[in-house]
Amino acid sequence: MFTGIIQQIATVESINSKHGDIQCVFSLGNDSLISIDEGDSLSVNGVCLTAYNIDNNLFSVDISNETLDLTNLTQLCTGYKVNLESALCLKDKLGGHMVSGHVDCMANVIEIYEDARSYRIRFQLNDSFFSKYIVKKGSICVDGISLTVNDDLNDTFSVNIIPYTWSNTIMMYYKLGSIVNIEIDRIALHIEKLIQKK
Fold this sequence. Notes:
This protein has 198 residues and is mainly β. Helices cover 12% and strands 44% of the residues. The protein folds into 2 domains: 8-86, Elongation Factor Tu (Ef-tu), domain 3; 105-196, Elongation Factor Tu (Ef-tu), domain 3 (Beta Barrel).
């Protein structure tokens, strides 16, 4: 489990094809903010992956075909930046919301504009089925970032990005058309299933 509070931006060092799926090597840079041990679970752009081959500030992950089919990790290339968060410990602060690292769908950035010192970003889901789970003032996870929904309209929703989040996540690199990973609030799914079983 994760909180959606990004700890660091990592950079793709290399990508190796492994019979269809891929092995990706990431660099934490010289000023690493997190410690990674062999076998740790990490959220990479909101996708739960297992780290191995830890070597100074480098680590590797394997990305399966299933993950490649459902996430924006197909865009990975040398130099690509990703959001990184280590798994939640029971003693940690829950500053965001409970995030599983299981991506539900993807979305495209369709609007970005400045609002005072913040940024407003609107996304369009690539699968409108999930729009029913997104509600105004509810939680949403975008590329691993825990955010509050400003508004929802049909298959789009918007969020407000404060200066700290803009400067410390890959959102600073977003452009119109950027593809992002979306994880809806797991509580909504559980409530729906409970209601359906009545």
